[in-house]
Amino acid sequence: MAEVFFADDFESGNLDSWDDDSVVDDPQRLRLSEEAAYRGRYGVEITALPGSGAGAKLNKWFYPGYDQVHVRWYCRFAEDFDQGNHMHFSHLLANRADNRYSAFGQAGEKPAGDDFFTTGLEPWRDWGRHPAPGEMMLYTYHMDMPIDAKMDQYWGEMMRSEIPFVPERGRWYCMEMMLKANTPGEADGAQAFWIDGQLLGRFEGIRWRDTLALKINDFWLMLYVHESERVNRVYFDEVVISREYIGPLAAETVAEDSTWGLIKAEDDGTGIR
């Protein structure tokens, strides 16, 4: 079985297992809900109210951290969900051992190798080319990320699957992401994502760090919409964090590395914030 070190199916009826910087005191933005349950009684409903920088998150630290982390969750976008174009979703982060907030507030900054790195599995409308919520991709801050030539800043690099996957609104999906740190001095880091147990993207040859002291140690279960023109809701359930592949509920078992395909990273110069 997968080496699990955190799990929450929300059946406790509280959010006590999540850490500081979680939104647990504003039920308009984040609350336990029976409507949000994939199975059992409760799940979590996260809402982006109309306005700028709308949304909320649950935060989970796991210090000192690991060199490889998988996170699995189930989610459903509301039937009328439409973020416009820009939004952020669930993220894995590497913070310094002496500063658990070193990866926070780093939008537009390029990692130096000893301060932070992050990746998030999130949907993107591609300037309206995809219907809401958009194509699932990994939004990534790493040491060799390209600069956005149009804006002269280091917005996250989009690593996209060869065949775009656009979730249907109103339907539950099992989503999983993996982040593997590199050996300092080597470009042997990787990341990958799965939807309903199917590998949709694996990206290798990444330099995340230049010191072993920087490890993956934080997860955000999140909805953040840059300019929310409507009430946007996502429902989450069955969160698991592990050092190995987890998979859908019907098959929570380890997958061999040899079963993973290799998909080359793609950058089209249109990084989002």
Low-confidence stretches: 253-273
Largest sheet: 8 strands, antiparallel
Mean pLDDT: 91
Provide the β-strand percentage band: 35-45%
The level 1 CATH classification is Mainly Beta
**Shape-level CATH architecture:** Sandwich
Measure the end-to-end span. Answer: 37 Å
From the 3D structure, determine the CATH topology. Answer: Jelly Rolls
- Give me the strand/helix succession: EEEEEEEEEEEEEEE
Rg computed from alpha carbons, rounded to a whole number of angstroms? 17 Å
Total number of distinct structural domains: 1
Number of strands: 15
Approximate shape: globular
Strand-pairing-aware structural class? mainly beta
**Helix run count:** 0
| Oligomer status | single chain
Helicity level, as a percent range? under 10%
